[in-house]
Design goal:
Rossmann fold; alpha/beta; seven-stranded parallel beta sheet; binds NADPH dihydro-nicotinamide-adenine-dinucleotide phosphate; binds ligand 8Z2; 8 helices; 282 residues
Length: 282
């Protein structure tokens, strides 16, 4: 008997599968874990704070268990993957969701800060992917890795260290997809836009309060929307999307801002239009 079923996927979509979600105790990772469970998967939630993980596992029910550790520390990363294998004997899906940065102008990023963001988003993500492949997926001849990034497609003013790190993850996604295709492993990146999670609380108030207005949809993404995408990528469809970066951002990447841009409007607030060429020269 399933405790909660998916609102959009068929029952049993991921029955029998074991998933590892890093950063699974909070926000987008927690939502993804809940949807994977609703689709039939067993999920191990990883993160540094045991109490946060335990509280989420209690909320998600018996299909959720925890593995505490820091993905930047090799022994911890090894232990997290080993825990999944001891518990389930397989690892079908790794959701590389743990990540983050801080909001500061590019010129104020200290070397240690740059390194901290790289170590987490690129180093931790890479190590977890390598361990999942070596220990579980290559021996099984099958697996899926979903790398969650914060879309870097606009350069992420205010978080340029993260922009560089996330762009690196997108590039790694393409390279890994090619490198591990022969092992039956699919690798996909999700370039997430701006989502309603508790993590937004740490940003300065003016940033936090205006962030939804920077999205053409005029609202933040909901964690369950992200979770549906992760479940879709964990399905058979994910295999043919290997090497792709799937953007989920309410059109933010493609937007130049509110229309009309104030800098080009005339005194009446209209956008000037170009003159047509005289008929004879057309
Ligand atoms: C326009 C569009 C808008 C849009 C803006 C709105 C964004 C909405 C979209 C949301 C996107 C998200 O990703 S929300 C999810 C956010 N979640 C997270 O960020 C969680 C994970 N983050 C972290 O753990 C930390 O931020 C991170 C720095 C990456 C790692 O932490 P560490 O413990 O490894 O690092 P620390 O020891 O604290 O710090 C190491 C160094 O980093 C620097 N450093 C750390 N925090 C700093 C800070 N606040 N200000 C300056 N510098 C800092 C210092 O140089 C530190 O060195 P010393 O000075 O020598 O100590
Ligand atoms: N919210 C948003 O608008 C967006 C978020 N994202 C990205 O999605 C992911 C999740 O974001 P969100 O849920 O909002 O934010 P959170 O800050 O809640 O999520 C980060 C998670 O990663 C874990 N984590 C952080 N560092 C480590 C580490 N070194 N080792 C293991 N676990 C770690 C944290 O747990 P703990 O501290 O216990 O280790 C936490 O559960 C992040 O990569 C984020 O950057 C991308 C686009 C937009």
């Amino acid at each position: 008997m399933r405790a909660v079923s998916s609102e959009i996927f068929a029952p049993g979509l991921l029955d029998g599968q074991a998933a590892l979600v890093t950063g699974g105790g909070t926000g987008l990772g927690r939502a993804a874990a809940a949807e994977l469970i609703a689709c039939g998967a067993q999920v191990v939630l990883a993160g540094r704070r045991a109490e946060v993980l335990e509280a989420t596992a209690a909320r998600l029910g018996p299909a959720a268990t925890t593995a505490t550790g820091d993905i930047r520390v090799d022994d911890d990363a090894e232990r997290i993957v080993a825990t999944v294998l001891e518990r389930h004997g397989r690892l079908d899906l790794l959701v590389n969701n743990a990540g983050g940065q801080y909001f500061v102008p590019a010129e104020a990023i200290a070397t240690r800060g740059w390194q901290a963001v790289m170590r987490l988003n690129v180093g931790g993500t890479t190590r977890m992917a390598e361990l999942a492949v070596e220990r579980a997926m290559r021996p099984a001849g099958r697996g899926t890795i979903v790398n969650v990034t914060l879309s870097p497609h606009h350069g992420l003013a205010g978080m340029t260290h993260s922009s560089a790190a996330r762009a690196a993850v997108e590039s790694l996604t393409r390279a890994w997809a090619e490198r591990w295709a022969g092992d039956g492993i699919a690798v996909i990146a999700v370039a997430a836009g701006h989502f309603q999670t508790d993590a937004l609380d740490k940003y300065p108030a003016p940033v936090r309060e205006s962030v939804a207005r920077m999205v053409p949809l005029q609202r933040l993404g909901q964690p369950r929307e992200h979770a549906w995408l992760v479940a879709l990528l964990a399905s058979e469809l994910g295999r043919s999307l290997s090497g792709s970066v799937v953007t989920l951002d309410g059109a933010r990447d493609n937007w130049c801002g509110p229309w009309p841009p104030p800098a080009i409007t005339d005194d009446g607030g209209d956008v000037p239009v170009e003159e047509r060429r005289p008929a004879a020269t057309r």
